[in-house]
Design a protein that fits this description.
alpha/beta; five-stranded parallel β-sheet; four-stranded antiparallel β-sheet; 8 helices; 12 strands; 42% helix
């Protein structure tokens, strides 16, 4: 597994690169946003660890450019900024996970393993999260073997969230991705989420649709799975 580290702090970059290599990963690094972006465009990586505060081009814009160009490699964003607004900006730009500095390297490894596992699980035509199955070729959804009937919007939203399991989607991000409109109609997201939750979760003890208060929504499997 090849990982790109884009980090301008040399000690942090060295810690990440050495630790990842010792854990069996191939890790390469870039010290500014522009050179990191060039590598991300020209080479194949299975994960990018991206600092927010970078010279040349910042991490938020870096992430937004990759997603605009449909480069879907998972991105773990690092930042010394830990407010909810900062996390929302990163998630809206397309980051898959967010880790505040200073961090324990063991947590970095855990996030890397989780992102790589989810990415591999979601690349096929069948997305499986616990007992939920989404067949993206047939456009069917089932849970615990029972078929679930969704509207087109509900299916598109559930599929978008499931493909990036545990990624928190803000209302604005959902509107832009599923409805292609702005936040003036953000209540439609809440209505759609309530309907999906009723169909997917209400008859099951383990809940898969989660509200992250003050941020947005995500799909994730129960703890311990």
């Amino acid at each position: 597994m090849r990982i790109l580290i884009v980090e301008d702090d040399h000690s942090t970059a060295a810690l990440l690169q050495t630790g990842l290599q010792n854990a069996g990963y191939t890790a390469v690094s870039a010290t500014d946003g522009l050179s990191g972006l060039e590598q991300a465009r020209s080479q194949t990586f299975q994960l990018i660890i991206l600092d927010v505060m970078l010279p040349g081009i910042g991490g938020i814009e870096f992430c937004r450019i990759l997603r605009t160009e449909r480069i879907t490699v998972p991105i773990l964003m690092l930042t010394a900024l830990g407010t909810v607004d900062d996390r929302v900006r990163g998630l809206d730009a397309g980051a898959d996970d967010y880790l505040a500095k200073p961090f324990d390297f063991r947590e970095v490894l855990a996030r890397v393993r989780a992102l790589s596992r989810r990415d591999s699980e979601h690349k096929g035509t069948i997305i499986r999260i616990a007992d939920l199955e989404i067949d993206t070729q047939r456009h069917t959804v089932s849970r615990a073997g029972m078929d679930i009937t969704l509207t087109l919007r509900e299916y598109e939203l559930l599929c978008a969230m499931a493909q990036r399991e545990s990624h928190v989607f803000t209302r604005d991000a959902i509107l832009n991705r599923v409805w292609a409109c702005d936040a003036t109609a953000s209540n439609v997201v809440d209505v759609c989420i309530r309907s999906i939750r009723r169909k997917v979760d209400d008859d099951h003890e383990a809940k898969l649709i989660h509200t992250i208060w003050g941020v947005g929504y995500c799909v994730r499997r129960p703890e311990g799975e």
